[in-house]
Amino acid sequence: MAEPAQVTVWYDGDCPLCRREIAALRGLDRKARIAFVDLSIGLPCPLDRDAMIARLHAQETGGPLLSGAEAFAAMWRAIPALRPFGEMARRPGVLGRLERLYIAFLRVRPLLQGLLGGRRSRPEAPRRARV
């Protein structure tokens, strides 16, 4: 009998960066310790869908909903090859630094998504027709 997932992760399946990262994590998660939930296909989520898509969210079994760097650390702890990084995030000051890096990434995410052919997080302004 397969053991139940230790972490549930909600991700933006419309984001090409997110899809690539989730595919890599699935490849490392050989024992299926993470349940991945694609928010782009309308599956239930614990918060407002737009809020869930704006930041990565995860929940360890029986624990609170996590977002950002905390969510990444929870995923890392569930995968043996990445567990040292997840444990390192528990050290004082490390999680705060990781969160600042994650926030910096979120600022450039729409541009990176556009380069990779995905949807943008913000709607584009209407373009004027050339006359």
Protein described:
- This protein has 131 residues and is α+β, with helices and mostly antiparallel strands.
- It has helices spanning 16-28, 49-54, 69-78, 83-88, 94-115; strands spanning 7-11, 34-38, 57-60, 65-67.
- The N and C termini lie far apart (67 Å).
- The protein has one domain (7-115).
- Strands 2-1-3-4 form a four-stranded mixed sheet, covered by helices on one side.
- Strand 3 (57-60) and strand 4 form a beta hairpin.
- The chain is globular.
Layout of helices and strands:
Layout: E1 7-11, H1 16-28, E2 34-38, H2 49-54, E3 57-60, E4 65-67, H3 69-78, H4 83-88, H5 94-115
Parallel strand pairs: 1-2
Antiparallel strand pairs: 1-3, 3-4
Mean pLDDT: 86
Strands across the major sheet, in which order?
2-1-3-4
Q: What Rg do the Cα atoms give?
A: 16 Å
What is the count of structural domains?
A: 1
State the separation between the terminal residues, measured CA to CA: 67 Å
% residues in beta strands? 5-15%
| Number of distinct helices | 5
Biggest sheet details:
4 strands, mixed
> What structural class do helix, strand and pairing data support?
alpha+beta
Low-confidence stretches: 120-131
In sequence order, what are the helices and strands, one letter per element? EHEHEEHHH
Tally of DSSP β-strands: 4
Shape descriptor reads globular
* Helix amount: 40-55%
